[in-house]
Amino acid sequence: MFYYVRIRRKLRTLASDRAYELTLMHNLDALKRPRTDFTMDRVDRLLRPFSAVETIGTNSDILIIGPRTENDLLMFLAYGFERSRLSAIDLITYSPWIELGDMHKMEYPDNSYDGVFCGWVLSYSASPRDVAAEITRVARNGALVAIGIDHISLTPQEVEKRDGYAIIPADSTAEHANSADEVLDLFGEAVDTVYFKHDAPLKDQLDVLNRVSSYGESTIMVVFSLKK
Predict the structure, then answer these.
(1) What is the Cα–Cα distance from 60 to 46, expressed in whole angstroms?
(2) Cα 87–93–95 angle (5° rounding)?
(3) Which of 37, 81, 93, 146 has the fewest CB atoms within 10 Å around its CB?
(4) Can you give the pTM of this predicted structure?
């Protein structure tokens, strides 16, 4: 990252009219804290069940949405997936491994991927159903989809009081999925088999969560196949 951002000056961003206004600011700020945010261990939690489903293999075509850094791709390589079969898209990129693009309107043909991995990105969208529709479009029939988000117990007002800003505005919380079932509902009748469902078991234990996560959150994860 130092080489591409500081020396090559390759950092580029793309605004999205369907992402929350503070999305870019929040994630650019995270790039300034590589020791805490460059390697995200939570990605591995979602990759474990995703990679365990036999409908995909290490030679499958995989799309990774919103990796921010090469971390997600490196984890896929560690699981044996082929680098040439991995694609990645983000509103921020400095890396030749990650294409600049908007998950609400992806420039990939229909039926391009055997798997779509979307870890902790969906919550930045003010139009999550549009994201679900795009994932369904670029995925092949029977493709495996993995979605990870944080269950947010705090209100936007509480988050703003604590952090100085809230990514999700107070008037947009109804559009924000906050459970595994709400994530699956975004895909409607396109959901086929649900292989893994993890619905924030610590969401009501804020005293514990505050020691685990600075946001007082707990993880929601789903892995399912699509029917088209």
Answers:
(1) 17
(2) 70
(3) 37
(4) 0.91
